[in-house]
Amino acid sequence: DAKTTQPNSMESNEEEPVHLPCNHSTISGTDYIHWYRQLPSQGPEYVIHGLTSNVNNRMASLAIAEDRKSSTLILHRATLRDAAVYYCIHTSGTYKYIFGTGTRLKVLA
Amino acid sequence: DAGVTQSPTHLIKTRGQQVTLRCSPKSGHDTVSWYQQALGQGPQFIFQYYEEEERQRGNFPDRFSGHQFPNYSSELNVNALLLGDSALYLCASSLWGGVNEKLFFGSGTQLSVL
Q1: Interface of B with A in 42-61 (CB under 8 A)
Q2: Mind listing the pLDDT tens digit for each residue in B24-78?
Q3: Taking CB atoms and an 8 Å limit, are A101 and B33 in contact across chains?
Q4: Which residues of B are less than 8 Å from A87 in CB distance?
């Protein structure tokens, strides 16, 4: 099964950028990289996904290493509402997503 | 447009009992997946339903079973409950077959087994 490695926790100051790293050394050529986040008392919510190129959306940016063995989720200006557990997943689209323990992001006011 | 809805939100059962959890997918979605999330852990995949059939299954015993109805809603059944089944059960909906499709999760059912 696809497995990713993320730091257990990270801290950021409000209004500053945050870079959340993920290693996915077992990724195959057709696997997409997905990021989800889980706010307290809620189910996970989609953040962003990509295959090879860097991706941007209104929530975040995704930077994918050239060898695709790692990726970084970038929150350009962290807010208190971004405090959550962030999960990085790679999948071939079968929806059998393998979630790790994720990175708990703490945003300091 | 309602998102994924799950019921009940909380449930308390005793060991050995059976439980049924329900999920209505986001409008337009045809695929439902179920996940179990223990405290402090990431969600673990249980199984996935499409066209009323179980399409994929994670590493869960046969005590966990499910069903999908013609309107795409789904049920998760757990028999012979164990203390270790206490967890947040999440339902996610999506469209079948798209590698770019996002999963939409409900807020979950918190099951406590005493």
Answers
A1: 42-45, 48, 56, 58
A2: 999 999 999 999 999 999 999 999 999 999 998 999 999 999 999 999 999 999 9
A3: no
A4: 42
